[in-house]
Amino acid sequence: MLSQKAKYALRALLALAEADQDHPLLIAEIAEAQRIPKKFLEQILLDLKFHGLVASRRGKHGGYILVKPADLISLADVIRMIDGPIAPLPCLSRTSYQRCADCDGEAQCRLRRAFAKAHDANLRVLETTSLASLLDDDAAQREAV
Predict the structure, then answer these.
(1) Does the pLDDT at position 145 exceed 60?
(2) Distances from the Cα of 137 to the Cα of 72, 79, 120, angstroms
(3) Predicted TM-score (pTM) of this structure
């Protein structure tokens, strides 16, 4: 399940992706617009800054901006940064693989085979959906109405 922290991180990144990169957004602006507790957002933005997705600017026209292009930031990237591995079983993880302690063999494991199908489908969506594509989807929906 997606944590609240990851959900807030994605919403904050979408706000930054949508914003004019020449005009950084203040934490208070993001928090209010996205309905994210300000203190929690501060921690999230520090994490995202550590991972190189956002940068902060000081001063009168300071705030946060997106550093990496929105089309290069996938949902999977953000979820892994905030929540860790996406896989439902450690033996399916691409970034934190671990053999299951009670496993007699991955090739024979019925649970692994079943969960692998669901996990692969989930990953296809999360890894191919970028922040930019979500914004494009929003724009297309508004035009259709």
Answers:
(1) no
(2) 16, 20, 23
(3) 0.86
